[in-house]
């Protein structure tokens, strides 16, 4: 049985979604808490009850971004399964995250604000790098089991994830292109994996 969402939780989420919309439309500095309250359809007092400042609202947006990224972290490498199949599953999960509309909105807000606030950019890049380290660790494990004969795990991780983002992240974030359709998602995942395996000299 589904647990009903409390009214206070619905209002909190409405505030976060309103902040995302306003930060995207006007930027962090130009957005007021009054405007966020109006867009969310709640009182200004309700906004401040949940988030004492815009900085805390922005921190919540980043937190939700990290949670989304964490959900796509790969399971441990399994030497008993074909490497290609595991890579397809790994990138398939990452593709699903990258093409999620809510995740893209979070990313647009975070990246736009990072451009205007270098100190936030440094923190964001550091935390994102920490999340993406999970793929590097996975590749190191594959290499330790003799499945990757040439590739440096750190470089290989950037190539693997960067290939996916070329089609399934940056066009949507920077040029507001629509998410890829399911067939194109599968095509991009398969092409990225096969090109990676050719580069890595893998024994798939």
TrEMBL record:
* Domain of life, per lineage: Bacteria
Q: Whereabouts does the entry annotate DNA binding, in residue ranges? A: 32-51
Q: Which residues form the HTH tetR-type domain?
A: 9-69
What InterPro entries does the database record attribute to this sequence?
A: DNA-bd_HTH_TetR-type_CS (IPR023772), Homeodomain-like_sf (IPR009057), HTH-type_TetR-like_transc_reg (IPR050109), HTH_TetR (IPR001647), Tet_transcr_reg_TetR-rel_C_sf (IPR036271), TetR_C_Proteobacteria (IPR039536)
* Alphabetized UniProt keyword annotations: DNA-binding, Repressor, Transcription, Transcription regulation
| GO MF | DNA-binding transcription factor activity; transcription cis-regulatory region binding
Q: Which SUPFAM superfamilies match?
A: Homeodomain-like, Tetracyclin repressor-like, C-terminal domain
Q: Which Pfam families match?
A: TetR_C_7 (PF14246), TetR_N (PF00440)
Give the protein name, as stated in the record: TetR family transcriptional regulator
């Amino acid at each position: 049985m589904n647990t009903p969402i409390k009214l206070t939780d619905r209002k909190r989420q409405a505030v976060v979604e309103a902040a995302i919309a306003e930060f995207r439309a006007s930027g962090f500095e130009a957005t007021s808490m009054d405007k966020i309250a109006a867009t969310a359809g709640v009182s200004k007092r309700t906004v401040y009850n949940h988030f004492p400042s815009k900085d805390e609202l922005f921190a919540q947006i980043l937190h939700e971004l990290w949670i989304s990224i964490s959900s796509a972290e790969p399971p441990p490498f399994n030497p008993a399964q074909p490497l290609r199949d595991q890579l397809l599953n790994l990138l398939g999960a990452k593709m699903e995250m990258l093409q999620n509309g809510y995740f893209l909105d979070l990313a647009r807000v975070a990246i736009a604000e990072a451009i205007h606030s270098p100190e936030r950019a440094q923190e964001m890049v550091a935390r994102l790098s920490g999340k993406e380290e999970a793929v590097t660790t996975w590749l190191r494990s594959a290499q330790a089991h003799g499945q990757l004969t040439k590739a440096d795990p750190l470089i290989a991780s950037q190539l693997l994830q960067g290939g996916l983002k070329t089609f399934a992240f940056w066009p949507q974030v920077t040029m507001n292109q629509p998410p890829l359709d399911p067939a194109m998602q599968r095509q991009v995942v398969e092409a990225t994996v096969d090109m990676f395996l050719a580069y890595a000299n893998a024994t798939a």
